Each structure stands twice: as C-alpha cells, then as structure tokens.
Amino acid sequence: MTLQEIKEAVDNGKTVYWENGNYTVVKNDKNGEYFIKASNGYCIGLTWADGKTLNGKEEEFFTLDK
Predict the structure, then answer these.
(1) 64: buried, middle or exposed (CB in 10 Å: 19+, 13-18, 0-12)?
(2) pTM, full prediction
(3) Are 43 and 23 in contact (CB under 8 A)?
(4) Is residue 66 predicted with pLDDT exceeding 90?
(5) Are the C-beta atoms of 10 and 29 separated by less than 8 Å?
(6) Which pLDDT score is estimated for 65?
(7) Which of 56, 62, 63 has the alpha carbon at shortest distance from 14?
(8) Less packed terminus of the chain by CB within 10 Å, N or C?
(9) SS3 letters for the chain?
(10) Which burial class, exposed, middle or buried, applies to 18 when counting CB atoms under 10 A from its CB (0-12, 13-18, 19+)?
(11) Contact assessment for residue 64 and residue 15, using Cβ atoms and an 8 Å cutoff
C-alpha cells in the first residue's frame, strides 16, 4: 500500500496492518499524525521525519477489510 492508500484506509475506518497482526496503523485525531502501533502499546511514526518515507516497505502494509 502507498502512503496515501494507508492514510485513506485508516481515515475510512479500515484496519491497516504492518507485517503481521501485531502492528496496526493508527491516527492521532488531536494532531492528525499517523503511527504504527505494536500490540504492546509501543508506537513509531508511520513515516520518517520527512513525512513521505514509510517506516516499512509498501508491500508490508495490508488490510483485511473489504
């Protein structure tokens, strides 16, 4: 998934995973930032500081929602 596809899916209420079911992409509604959240609660930014480069490969992101 591209960065835009990930953001659109999350904004539309879909669950986006990174690598496996232990990591999901979430959005902080307060400031509009997107994060990759681990099942243990640890978070990293969806992108690097440039706001464009994903913290992962596009092919590692997926959704099971239709």
Answers:
(1) exposed
(2) 0.92
(3) no
(4) no
(5) no
(6) 75
(7) 63
(8) C
(9) CCHHHHHHHHHCCCCEEECEEEEEEEEECCCCEEEEEECCCCEEECECCCCCCECCCHHHEEECCC
(10) buried
(11) yes
Question: 46: exposed, middle or buried (C-beta count within 10 Å: 0-12, 13-18, 19+)?
Answer: buried
Tokens found for residue 5: 């596809």
Token readout for 32 is 């509009």
- Residue 18 has φ and ψ, to the nearest 5°, of -120, 120
pLDDT exceeds 80 at position 21: yes
β-bridge mates for residue 33, sequence order = 28
Tell me the β-bridge partners of 63.
Answer: 16
